[in-house]
Amino acid sequence: MMKLKATSVAVALVVAGSAWAAVAVRDEPIKPIEPAKVENAAKVELGKKLWFEPRLSMSGIISCNTCHNLSMGGTDNLKTSIGHGWKAGPVNSPTVYNSSLAIAQFWDGRAADLKEQAGGPIQAGVEMNMPHTLAVGILQSIPGYVEEFESVYGKNKIDIDMITDSIAEFEKTLVTPDSRFDKWLRGDDKALSEKELAGYTLFKESGCVACHNGPAAGGTSFQRMGVVEPYKSSSPAEGRSAVTGADADRFNFKVPTLRNVALTYPYFHDGEAATLEQAVDTMGRLQLGRTYSKDEIGQIVAFLKTLTGELPQIAMPVLPPSSNATPRPDPFK
């Protein structure tokens, strides 16, 4: 793909059949989301099954989809997620949609990529509470999975690396292109209303795009929560300092994506902002030192709602049945 930049519009030349077609893309700090490219459909399908697989949890009732519900914007819409034994987790569940575009995974960035992230919740005591060795044993006892892993990876002995790799491949397909804002970026002047455009202009002029930029409108940096005013929270989450050990990184969190933000309430790492209006007001005061009027908040919220993209249509997989050798779960253990 070749890109030719004008003052306010970038022109992308793409091959359409055998002819070249020009597609106008506005030169803005937020870029369009591109559709997912599937390189190994069989691996993605296996990962999808494991995504919905509750037998990867000790209780047998929790799957990846429990906290990252693909029907609810890739979150659970709770302040903090509920895991094994009805324990409340310490942080809000970030959306899994467009997570492949992030600089790292988890609020504190402790996982470098989706594959590393996928193994964490399985064995975390407050989440699925399943040691990796037991998770592997469960799948190894299910003939349908043994056959599918052998087909995808060429060996019938399952390991945790194969499990997390296939889950990550499925997650890479969870992108949400073609939002109304994307259509506007690609030159459709009718895609946004005057109020929505005013909100985007205010969003830019206020400085929000310093952190919320790129295709995901965020997710590519770590920033301190509470720049102008301290952020008060009862959450035990320390932010990036829990990974680096540096006190200067305390309360630095990965900037969340704003894609599909209308679906991913409540907001912030502790889920304390119940609505978009509350989140915009708080971010304006604490991060920018600006108190927005009610009308200004309404404009920015109107713009943010245009970032809701087309969620992938996912057919529910049929999971292979357990064998007589498969350990039975105990939800109350």
TrEMBL record:
One of its GO terms (molecular function) is electron transfer activity. Gene3D superfamilies: Cytochrome c-like domain. Residues 42-150, 194-308 form the Cytochrome c domain. Coiled coil: none annotated. SUPFAM superfamilies: Cytochrome c. Residues 1-21 form the signal peptide. Its cofactor is heme. Heme c 1 binds at residues 64, 67-68, 84. InterPro entries: Cyt_c-like_dom, Cyt_c-like_dom_sf, Cytochrome_c_Peroxidase/MauG, Di-haem_cyt_c_peroxidsae, MauG/Cytc_peroxidase. Its EC number is 1.11.1.5. It is found in: Periplasm. Heme c 2 binds at residues 208, 211-212, 283. GO terms for cellular component: periplasmic space. Keywords: Electron transport, Heme, Iron, Metal-binding, Oxidoreductase, Periplasm, Peroxidase, Signal, Transport. Binds 2 heme groups. PANTHER family: CYTOCHROME C PEROXIDASE-RELATED. This is Cytochrome-c peroxidase. It comes from Thauera aminoaromatica.
